[in-house]
Design goal:
Layout (H helix, E strand, L loop, with lengths): L2 E8 L8 E8 L5 H11 L3 E8 L2 E7 L4 E2 L3 H13 L9 E5 L2 E8 L2 E7 L4 E2 L4 H7 L5 E4 L3 E5 L3 H6 L4 H4 L6 E7 L7 E7 L4 E4 L6 H12 L4 E5 L5 E8 L2 E6 L1 E9 L1
Length: 262
């Protein structure tokens, strides 16, 4: 019998939007090279692999080219699957053991709230290769544990970006977050995320980037409980709430297809 694999769109309440992730719930651990090959075959931003243990689930995330340390949308998709297939009851907490420590998710109505580590950004000097690759001049440049974060002057500038991905691939960070304020009534800030060095030119909706965006915009806007919109072609919403050195990320998810690996 084959191994079940499910594709779920995360940070959206309807199919064919948000960020698709494949979720594979395994009966036992599989070799790293097998998981990497499956992720390459699925060819999504991330494929997640779950194995139940005594206190939750071991969780690992793979892009088509590499394993990553933290992934929000594939964690959201994994939690969604566990409740949808009744591996967990609605009132139970989903606990994940990962390369970024212990992560938890709770179901709150139609939304799932995830407890993630905060990754605040610190100011850095002008980076000419970054500005050249983006084709834009940031109003502020900073660096988090994983990424560069650049603030641009307007939402229109963020949406209009057409980066040189080959040039971005030369940077020594996981990716680049471009963000700006917005006057839109449905969200508080807008962003896009580029990670060609991880095999993803543009990620549709990036939960882990909001571990940096949440703290950043909390300080800039002087308030918490924010909603970010990631303005990729698919688009998606992420709610953020800061809690000390943690960030609570909330989103919705929709199952798109179920299949079996032969």
């Amino acid at each position: 019998m084959g191994i079940a694999i499910t594709q779920i769109d995360a940070f959206t309440d309807k199919p064919f939007a948000g960020n698709p992730a494949a979720v594979c719930l395994l009966q036992q651990s599989r070799p790293d090279d097998w998981m990497q090959l499956v992720a390459r075959e699925m060819n999504l931003s991330e494929t997640s692999f779950l194995v139940r243990d005594a206190d939750g689930f071991d969780l690992r995330w793979f892009t088509p080219t590499t394993e990553v340390d933290l992934c929000g949308h594939a964690t959201l998709a994994s939690a969604h699957l566990l409740w949808e297939e009744e591996h967990l009851l609605p009132g139970q907490t989903a606990r994940f053991h990962t390369r970024s420590g212990s992560l938890e998710a709770t179901k709150k109505g139609a939304w799932i709230e995830m407890d993630f580590p905060s990754t605040p950004a610190n100011p850095v000097a002008k980076i000419e290769i970054l500005e050249s690759a983006l084709g834009a001049t940031p109003t502020f440049t900073s660096q988090s544990k994983f990424d560069y974060l650049v603030e641009l002057s307007s939402e229109e500038q963020v949406r209009a970006l057409k980066p040189d991905f080959a040039a971005l691939r030369q940077l020594t960070v996981r990716g680049v977050i471009a963000t700006s304020r917005t006057s839109h009534a449905d969200y508080d800030f807008v962003s896009r995320f580029f990670a060609p060095s991880a095999g993803i030119d543009e990620d549709p909706v990036t939960g882990s980037a909001h571990c940096c965006l949440g703290p950043y915009w909390k300080v800039k806007l002087g308030r918490d409980n924010l909603t970010g919109y990631q303005a990729s072609a698919r688009g998606g919403y992420v709610r953020t709430r800061c809690a000390g050195d943690r960030v609570l990320l909330s989103g919705q998810a929709a199952t798109v297809l179920r299949a079996q690996l032969s």
